[in-house]
Structure formats: C-alpha cells, structure tokens
Amino acid sequence: MTLLIGRQGDDELLAQLRELLLPPSPMTTMTPVVKVDQSGVIIGPPASSRDGRRRRRRGSKRGGRDDDSMSSYNGEQQHEEPPRHSCKTRKMKQRQKKMSSTSSLVTSVPDFDGYQWRKYGQKQIEGAMYARSYYRCTRSAEQGCPAKRTVQRNHDGGDGDGTPPKYTVVYMGEHTCTANDSMEAPVILETAAAVVAPVTSTSIKRPQNHDGTAPTTSAGSCSITSTSTATGIESPAISDITYWSSSSSGDYAVDDYCRLFGVHDSWAPPATAAASSLQEMEDFTGPIRSPVHIATADGWTIDHFLLQLASNDQPVSHFSF
DNA sequence: ACAATTTGACCCCC
DNA sequence: GGGGGTCAAATTGT
Questions:
Q1: Where is each WRKY domain found (predicted)?
Q2: A87: helix, coil or strand?
C-alpha cells in the first residue's frame, strides 16, 4: 500500500494519516486485529472474556487480604470466595474462554495503547529470552474492567544492533471502563513530557543499555523531536506510537513508522518520570508505568505534527506498507 | 501514607 | 509434572 502525500487539504491528509497510523483504540473501537501469534495460532478479534480465577492462596506463608485493591479487580471478586471445590469447573471454562479472545500486536513501544495498565505479574517464559509481564486495566478494580494484556520482548531487535527492541503485546478481554477515564485523549501518546517540563541535561535519564552502550530503547529510538522543522518550533517527542496490524499480511511496528517518517534516534529528553519508565521498559524487569496520555503543555498534537509534515518540505513523501 | 511494582508461591490446564 | 497465569505480601516509589 502506498500513500502519496501531496499538497492536498490538511483535513484529508490528516484523515489519511490517522487512518494509517492511528488505529482508534486497542480494545474498544479498533478494528479487530487478526494476527498469527508466536505460537502460530491465529488470533481472532478481541471478544469479551474474563479471567475468573478466584481463589485464596493455599498454604501460603502470606495471609489473605480481602480488602486489598487487587482482590477486587474483577468486580465480581468483592463477592465471597467460593469454595475451591465448587469453582473448579468454572475456572476451567473461564480460562478456556480467556484464551479465545485475544488480539496481539508487535510494537516497539508497548506502553502506547491509550490505556492505563497495572502490572500484576511477571514471569520468565520457557524458551523466551525475556520475561513476560502481565498487566490489567487500572480500572479493573473500580469498574471491573476485565481487560488484560501481556507484554513480552521479542528475541530480535534491540540487542545493540541498532534496531529497537520489539515487544509482542497480547490483549485479552475488552475494556469496559468508561471512555473518559482511559481514552479521553487521542491515541497518540505524547510522552513529550519533555514539553511539560523542560528537562535540563542533568536530569535527563536517557534510556541506555545496561552496559552503557548506545541506547536502543523502545521509545527512544522512535522519538520524533525537534528534528524538524522549518518552523523552529520544538515539537514534542512522539515517542509512543503503536501500529496495529490490520491485516494478515504482517505486523507494523513503531520503528516502521519512524523509518517512514524519516525519524532518527533523536531522543527527546522526556520528563524524568517518563524517561525512567521508558528506561525501565527496556528489559521489562523494572517498574513499568504506563505513561498514558500526557497532554502536552503547548497543546501540540499529532495533528500538528502531521500538518507540519505536510506543510513543510519534509523528506518523507509517501508511505509504503 | 498511599499507590504501584516486585516477586515467589500457588493454581490450573495440557 | 511442567508451563503459564495469577495472587498477594513485601518492597519501592511518590
């Protein structure tokens, strides 16, 4: 597919770009993602699912904590704990159900999906080089949103070879949380936190490899900074753009976006929080705080960026997918 | 103090 | 029995 960017109307251009680059919503409004996951299983569009496992640890050294926020993540969980013997078959069905309602994508910036996630587990997967992280919607506790996702870094990329690391993100379940809580902002995440708080060099925590070599961070490599632009306006980093596969032909990753836009690894110094989280995202062994939509202070949006691309003599003139 | 993450144990399914 | 997913106390961060 090739999209030629001419000097058409901005609206039309933006519409095209949005359609190509900004899938509406990962879980609620996006078109179903059909993809083959790592195990070769065709993953269908997201459907309602619910992981209904509810049980008290048995023989754990830790005691139960019924008032814990996590314990009510499911909405149903506030109810009584069913006896183990009575819930077993139900759990089985629920697990099976869960597995049939997933969607996945490959991205370099797994954080960028427009939702807030809370990490509830991490596990080293057999045969996988990196641990898999488990997240659930932060609204799961308050609104019983069943949406979950797992993020796992792929083997290839990001190993110092200059390519950003890629992550396989698998979404399970649909978001039932209210839109204004999690999706009010556009899909584009403007980590441009940099804009929110101009960062001095002393506070920059640029993501870098543990060995201190050239950083190949997920977001850093895809930052769009003031590379630009004839206007002299410092555009914020659009560091988190997730491209959802919308066809069976393959996956579109963020670095594709960056490449297409002629974006280089010009890390825009983000605010410390964003930077640190991105850094920690590197290997998924540290805290991962989904940045979610951070509105830029100057109101910069992807629209502005795209408009600039269109209005200025940007090197990029077409997309090829 | 509160919230989020870490991490090892637990549970279920294959 | 082992792998994957989840729980929840402990830990860490704000």
A1: 113-154
A2: helix
Output the pLDDT for position A83: 35
Distance from residue A55's CA to nucleotide C8's C1', rounded to whole Å = 11
**For each successive 10 residues of chain A (321 residues), what is the average pLDDT?**
39 44 40 38 36 36 35 36 35 43 78 82 88 89 83 72 79 74 40 33 34 33 33 35 40 39 36 38 40 34 37 36 35
Q: Which amino acid is at A133?
A: S
User: What pLDDT is attached to residue A190?
Assistant: 36
Distance CA A97, CA A38 (A): 19
| Residue closest to B5 C1′ by Cα | A287
Length, in residues, of chain A: 321
Written as one string, the DSSP assignment of A280-297 is: HHTTTSS----------T
> What DSSP state is assigned to residue A177?
S
- In this complex, the residue with its CA at the shortest distance from the C1' of nucleotide C13 is A287
Domain ranges of chain A: 2-49+100-320
Name the strand (E) or helix (H) holding A182. helix A179-182
Reading the block at residue A28, the tokens are 């609620």
Cα gap A42→A35, rounded to integer Å: 6
Between CA A69 and CA A212 the distance in angstroms is: 38
Nearest to A100 by CA among A173, A201, A6: A173
Q: Name the one residue in this structure whose structure tokens are 């069976």.
A: A248
Structure tokens at A167: 């992550």
Nearest to A299 by CA among A220, A197, A226, A195: A195
Question: What's the rounded Cα separation, in Å, for the pair A291 and A274?
Answer: 7
Whole-number Å distance, CA A216 to C1' C6? 31
CA distance A146 to A138: 10
Dihedral sign of CA atoms A157, A45, A26, A31 in order:
positive
